[in-house]
Amino acid sequence: MICVSIGRTRHKMVALEHRALAEKDAQLVEYRLDWLSHMPDVGRLLKHAPTPVVATCRRQSDKGRWRHSEEQRLNILRQAIAAGVDYVDLEDDVAQKIPRYGSTKRIVSHHNFDETPEHLQEIHDRLAACDPDYVKLVTMANSPRDTIRMLKLVEEAQVPTIGFCMGELGTVSRILCGKYGAPFTYATFSRERELAPGQLSFEEMHDTYRYDSIKPTTQVFGVLGDPIAHSYSPLIHNAAFAAADVDAVYLPLRVPKDALTDTLDAYDWLDIAGYSVTIPHKQGVLAKADRSDDSVKDIGAANTLFRRKQGVWHATNTDYEAALAGIHLGLKERNASDDSLSGKKILMLGAGGVARAIGMGVVRAGAALTIANRTKERAVELAEQLGCQHIGWENRGSVLADVIVNCTPIGMHPHVDESPFEQNWLRDGMVVFDTVYNPENTLFIKQAREHECFTVTGIEMFVRQAAAQFEIFTGQPAPLDVMRDALRKGISALR
Ligand code: NAP
């Protein structure tokens, strides 16, 4: 179950938000009474409450907003119990002062906003001795190991325990605590209403991560990267799991560049069978792989790490296949009977990681590749490695190519008025592939359409690399349309 925290300054707004949440299928809410600007009237709030309620009133020392005396705070909590609130949250140091009464369930809680102390079990034992129905233990994760220690504690606890970590490194535990036995997790009303660091919104927890369907058997997957909070991968992989009815969840895993090995070792406990890998770990992750595909060896980077049997990790690169599939789509649209790359003239803009993967693919397929890059040295270096041509960035308009591929971020949100290629350099009938996917219709793509070029957007590449991962992870065909729709929705929602 997901408990949604409501922190508003007016009683009326608490009631309104509660109704809105109940309409969206929320089953439990927490009233943060310390947020109310007037003295809380719990009886009034509970009168028309459409779902069960947790009454919580946090002191400022616990990062709450309570401005009155401690005596008044304890009275408010007693009043909530007398009014028959379903659950009351009592901090461990006051739990003994407020006796059990009626049918109200007692959540005895402890928060640590700085760290996840080593003596977590001792803290838990202390809370368990305060007559709880539920123990709630929330700490700050400063490492992936902290998150795993917390989940282990939840799994082993004798008293039902709501245990998770705050901060971006703790998000994993907010989503997975139910898998290990926590009776509920917490979420916010909306993304903008974060009441504690790293909290997810009800919508994300309910719709994206499908928290209520996560159970002990649920297989865990995730994306390793830094930053990762705005990655679209969780959105599209979880949508695919839901559509294909796969008992799995896919998590955003923030991993700082120098913490990859420690993180993967810590996450072994979660029995993760597959990772997507993004910047800055595409090279670093190779050290973890027992086996690598030829594509990975050639490109020197992987975007997928998976294992079929315990202990043997495979690295592969689905970006490469996805980009080639995108180019073939464009060529096929141009001439249904000839989507072959052999002998085609390709102009590639950029010489970074994506350019290296795509360049390798098209050269192998027999295309005549020319690279143009802002920094000449990088173009020269890549062209030497791939055995292809290069030209100056300023001369890119002079190449009469069958296919132009943009592997630079030019045109990416918010710089949507920029294009890597001038409109008057385009020729009718060219295939134009822009790897930028946010927005889907970049200025480059729009101008190419005006010239009757055959266009392929970055969405196609992004969805296809994720679809190939889905097939590796599950052994099932990927629901490509579902994944494409989820990505489009995600991109438009974040504008
Ligand atoms: P990267 O390794 O950082 O390379 C970036 C390339 O873009 C470099 O060649 C860089 O030139 C060039 N560049 C950057 N800003 C430029 C500017 N203002 N003017 C001219 N050239 C510029 O990045 P990457 O990993 O290859 O990713 C490149 C792009 O691919 C991303 O921005 C993203 O939009 C796209 N992408 C798409 C997908 C997908 O699935 N559709 C997946 C990954 C990436 P210098 O050498 O001069 O710095």
Question: Which characteristics define this entry?
Answer:
alpha/beta, binds NADP nicotinamide-adenine-dinucleotide phosphate, 16 helices, single chain, 495 residues
Explain the overall architecture.
- It is a single chain.
- Strands 7-6-5-4-3-2-1-8 form an 8-stranded parallel sheet.
- The chain starts with a strand and ends with a helix.
- The model has no long low-confidence stretch (mean pLDDT 95).
- α8 links the parallel β9 and β10.
- It is elongated.
- The longest helix has 17 residues.
- The chain contains 16 helices and 20 strands.
- α8 packs antiparallel against α16.
- By secondary structure, the chain is α/β, with parallel strands linked by helices.
- The site of NADP nicotinamide-adenine-dinucleotide phosphate has 23 residues, from α12 and α15.
Structural class: alpha/beta
Low-confidence spans: pLDDT under 50, at least 5 residues?
Answer: none
What proportion of the residues form beta strands (DSSP E)? 15-25%
Shape annotation: elongated
Strand order of the largest sheet: 7-6-5-4-3-2-1-8
Number of helices: 16
Let me know the number of strands. Answer: 20
Instruction: Indicate the mean pLDDT.
Output: 95
Helix amount: 25-40%
Task: Specify the biggest β-sheet.
Answer: 8 strands, parallel
State the oligomer: single chain
Q: Name every ligand kind in the structure.
A: NADP nicotinamide-adenine-dinucleotide phosphate
